């Protein structure tokens, strides 16, 4: 009885090992891409049906407000499939950007135990702030001065 239990445990262990290593090897070739599609397209229709039925490539987020699209873990072959679909606009591989400063509190004039950073403050612990600034365009309609009076002679 003990030997059959050990044999069963051994077989299950080998099966679990082989299953996990196969899954981790297939995940090594996946990258996360942010895919923009034309409005009113069902983003799931952009992925091959075999991807939707597996857990290795997954849609991680869908975008509806600023643009239409989704983020998904895709292989290079899956990305090519997505690029050839009607309604595809663009795809960008997810990137992590390095910090540009390690002295933000001092730069912002924040000091411990003063103002918002009083003794009970968590000092922003757990807060993540992201900002991507692509600049401004002086030719944007927001900067047109049509209908505006001339500036005052003294400011």
TrEMBL record:
Signal sequence extent: 1-22
InterPro entries, per database record: Peptidase_S8/S53_dom_sf, Peptidase_S8_Asp-AS, S8pro/Inhibitor_I9, S8pro/Inhibitor_I9_sf, SBT
Keywords linked to the UniProt accession: Hydrolase, Signal
SUPFAM superfamilies attached to this UniProt entry: Subtilisin-like (SSF52743)
Domain Inhibitor I9: 43-100
Top-level taxonomic group: Eukaryota
Pfam short name (any one): Inhibitor_I9
Entry's family note: Belongs to the peptidase S8 family.
The name this protein goes by in its record: Inhibitor I9 domain-containing protein
